[in-house]
Structure formats: structure tokens, C-alpha cells
Amino acid sequence: MSLVIEARDLRKIYHMGEEEVHALRGVSFKVVKQEFISIMGPSGSGKSTLLHILGCLDRPTSGELLIEGQNIQKATGNQLAEIRNRRIGFVFQNFNLLPKATALENVELPLIYAGVRRRERRERAEVVLERVGLADRMAHRPPELSGGQRQRVAIARAMVTEPTFILADEPTGALDSKTSAQIMELFAELNAEGNTILIITHDPTVAKQTKRIIHLLDGQIIKDTAGDGVSA
Ligand SMILES: Nc1ncnc2c1ncn2[C@@H]1O[C@H](COP(=O)(O)OP(=O)(O)OP(=O)(O)O)[C@@H](O)[C@H]1O
Ligand SMILES: [Mg+2]
Q1: Ligand 2 center to 37 CA (angstroms)
Q2: Which of 88, 145, 161, 195 could tie 190 with a disulfide, CB 3.0–4.6 Å?
Q3: Which domains does the chain have, with CATH numbers?
Q4: pTM of the model
Q5: pLDDT, block means (10 residues), the chain with 232 residues
Q6: Which residue, by CA, sits nearest to atom 28 of ligand 1?
Q7: For ligand 1, is residue 45 a contact (CB within 6 Å)?
């Protein structure tokens, strides 16, 4: 199976005046294509720190991160931006949608950055919005949508560029338990259709719905177990 992510002994030290905070203390793992993984740990375990590194938003103090074999440590700022835009589909807890743009316009946005022409942009945005069950909500603006629908728009936006993997940060954190289960079901379906998905969460209920759980504690992986997620 082809390797999507390879993390080798990632370490992150934050300097707080005289004090050093060891947020990641040697994290290594591999992700192959079409995995459905959660990275789970309690508050302070290093989840956000790891998310920022995997999302190419921050660099580790030491260790190596390879995305599809490309060594991120050696990438320039521009190359990192390119990787973020083209290869990673981000999904956030609070959706991060443009409130004044329609669902369709929100989903088209990454394609504008990618230089895709108007007509193709519109078609691709429509296809993914249909896929996430929002065919009849494309003209709505985020304030006119429910929380679950907003997250579907955000997932459509993450998918529209056909990224190498989807990186979701507490994607159900702002949703009630029923809507949360529906969003996890959608992720499972998208995974079955071939998408590689990584979810960062503190919530064991969410983690259980993925296929593989990487347990983080005090900046280290303490366990790597199978979840209950439906197999493709
Ligand atoms: N910018 C920073 N400067 C200094 N220390 C930091 C910084 N960011 C995080 N830390 C420390 O690094 C450790 C890991 O933090 P991190 O935010 O990655 O945890 P987390 O698992 O995301 O927690 P939470 O579930 O509360 O969001 C914590 O001890 C935190 O205090
Ligand atoms: Mg955090």
C-alpha cells in the first residue's frame, strides 16, 4: 500500500522563558492510503501540536515528516503552502466557513486558489455538495444552515481539491451527539470511497468509529489499536 504520511521521531519543544515544554517526545507512525484514523488523547497530550505539524502549519523541533515521500523538513515556505493547499483537506471544529458566501461559493474557494476555471469549479463544487447530501442547500449561506449541514459544507470544501488526505480537528466538537454520529457516518462512507482520513479528537466515542486509534499521552504514542469503524 502506498505511504501517505510517515512521521519519524517527531519532537516539539516550546520555550517558555527559562522553561522548556516537551509537547511531543518522539512520535513515529505511518499512514497508508485509504486509512481512517483517529489520534486521541487527553488535554495537553500534544494533539494540537501534532495537528499543526501534520498540517504543515508548524515544524517539529526535530524528527522528520514525509508526505507522499516528500520530506517536509526540506520544504520552503512556499512549498509548504502548496502542500497545504493541494494535498491536505482541512476540517475544523468551528467549520471556518465564510458567513456571507453561499455553500457553493465556500466549496469553490479552494479551487479559485488552485486556478481552476469558473465552469469546472462550479461543476466540481456541485458534485461534492451533492455527495455530502446538500444538493438542495447550495444557495444557502452558513447562518442559514444547521451545524451538521455547515460541517458537511466544510467537508465538501476539504474534498473538492481531491487532497491526499483529510485532516479533521475535533470535527464533531461543536455538534450534538446525533449530528456527530451522522458526520462520523459520512466520514466512514467517504473513507470507503477511497479517501484517507485523520481525525484528531479527545472523544473516545468519536475515535471508536474510526478504523485505527493512535493514543497520545504526554507527547508520546502509548497505544495503536483497532477501532470499530466499518471496514471498506
Ligand atoms: N505555543 C506554546 N507555547 C508553550 N507551550 C505550549 C504551546 N502550545 C502548547 N504548549 C504545551 O504543549 C503541551 C501540548 O499541548 P497541545 O496544545 O498540543 O495539547 P492538546 O492535546 O491539543 O490539548 P487540548 O485537548 O487541551 O487542546 C501542553 O503542555 C501545552 O501546555
Ligand atoms: Mg488542542
Answers
A1: 17
A2: 195
A3: 35-52+76-226 (3.40.50.300)
A4: 0.94
A5: 94 95 98 97 96 95 96 92 93 96 97 94 98 97 97 97 96 95 96 97 95 98 89 46
A6: 44
A7: yes
